[in-house]
Amino acid sequence: MKNKAKPISRQKKQLNAASKNNRARKNINKLKPLTTLYWQSSLDAVTDAVCFLDTDQRILHCNRAMTEMFGLTQKEIIGKHCREIVHGTTKPISKCPTTRTKKSLVRENGEIRKGDRWFNIIADSILDKKGTVKGVVHTIRDITEHKRIIKSLQESESKYRELVENVSEVFFTVDIQGRITYISSSMEHLTGYSTNEVIGTNISKHIFSEDFPKVMACINRMLTSGEKESIDYRVRVKDGSIRNVFGSNNVILKNGQPAGITGVITDITQRILAEEAIRAAELRFRTIFESASDGIILADPTDKNFICANESICAMLGYTREEILKLNISDIHPKEYLPYVIDQFEKLDRKEISIARDIPVMRKNKTVFFADVNSSSIVLDGKECLVGMFRDITESKHAEEVLKERDIVFRKLSAHVPGAIYQFVRKPDGTYHIPFSSDAVNKLFGYSPQELANDFSLVTKAILPEDIDGFISSIEYSAQHMTDWKYEFRIQLPGEPVRWMLGHSTPEKLLDGSIIWHGFNADITG
Question: What element of type H or E holds 53?
Fold first, then answer.
């Protein structure tokens, strides 16, 4: 008589199952810090200020560029309403893009002015599968100097690649009527039901109703063909939840006739969740990649051949995507500029500079345009790649030239205006600043426009001491009542006689709470 195999105790099976699940959770947990690091690193590589808001418009997270833009730490930013950081106020902002996008569910944007700088605010709703707003992605782009976020790409697929299935199996047998005749003790770990609660029940009680028809179709095919078959479906858990499983099934034969089904059920819930996360990450990656207004190219770091390109760079260069993938970095820059281009890219790689500016780029038709370029490295399919982001600065360079010409004309005109033209700012903390003044201030106050811009106290040094209090009081009155500032006062430069001055300007309140006056000072000594 043959020795029977010693049966494995139920307790030992449960311990084995628990051990396998612990290892699965540890493997997944090991990837979480890496996923967080990839995501945070990607966000911090962006040069625009980006933050994530909850439905109350409080900041949940922000990138490094936002802390640098506002001179605050993440700790000082997170938890505040975006209007407190961006606008310096606790009151709701009229026509706020963030408020509008929560209603329209589409991208909203708007422009604001802070001092002499302009910013474009972009707001995108974050929606769940039901279309409910769960938050807002809030982007601030400095459009004065044409700097914006250069999104650092990474292939999200690699974050989940290492996830593998390592769960306990459930062994079962079912008769021809679908009644469960045997179930292993692992069933309790999978569904919470003990073997006594399961044996004798019909499989319809445990299979998710929407998946039951396809499971029965699989069983009928097997009973007809006698062949093995596998299927994935969902099962009900005792606590009311649902788990995804994969069943490997075979037919039980008695006297050559089908008598039931036997098989092994594997819990694939974590794998399904991981696949959904990968698909969501791939969708985010592809959406960012293809919708970016900047041109983006991925290149092999060894031979500098291009391996991926978005629509924007194709439009910039005039090539199709297929044509670009046959090119090398040397094919899109004029030969005479290649040494300079390579030097700039090497400085980017060494992090000596954050952006390579005024890089000449050659189109398919051999014409040249200039771009600001940011470069970084990402890992794609386990291989390091270079990603280059190109921003066409042709329009901004033209605009700069126009502004320079206008500035020259303005200075020529202001040279013939009696007195000095100026802009005067009172900041929320009560300090004064003269961001602009015409060259005539040198004759009136004895200092250049740049010297006065750096130190307002030079103005008060020229004013007679007995006139200073009235001078300051008149400014504060104008600021408090937002009325025109008009004041006569006396100044005296070393070695010169006393002169009477007339100051006249109009105040304007800025979004950050500052007040700026536009006006002139004239010598009225007579």
Answer: strand 49-53
Q: Which amino acid is at 140?
A: I
Distance CA 74, CA 63 (A): 8
pLDDT at residue 115, rounded to an integer? 73
**Which CATH homologous superfamily contains domain 415-523?**
PAS domain (3.30.450.20)
User: Where in the chain do CATH 3.30.450.20 domains reside?
Assistant: 46-149, 168-267, 292-397, 415-523
pLDDT in tens, 171-221: 888 998 889 998 888 788 888 888 899 999 999 899 998 999 999 999 899
Q: What is the DSSP string of 391-413?
A: EE-HHHHHHHHHHHHHHHHHHHH
HEC per residue, 284-332: HHHHHHHHCCCEEEEECCCCCEEEEECHHHHHHHCCCHHHHCCCEHHHH
Is residue 93 a contact partner of residue 108, using CB atoms and an 8 Å limit? no
Specify the amino acid at residue 98. Answer: T
341-350 residue pLDDT tens: 888 888 888 8
Inter-CA distances, 356 with 50, 331, 374, Å: 22, 18, 6
Q: What share of the chain has pLDDT > 90, as a percent?
A: 18
CATH homologous superfamily for 46-149?
PAS domain (3.30.450.20)
Output the CA–CA distances (angstroms, integers) from residue 148 to 48, 372, 381, 395, in the order listed.
5, 11, 28, 15
356 vs 372: CA distance, rounded Å: 6
Q: Scan for tokens 């090539």, then name that residue.
A: 319
CATH of the domain spanning 292-397:
3.30.450.20
pLDDT number for residue 10 = 61
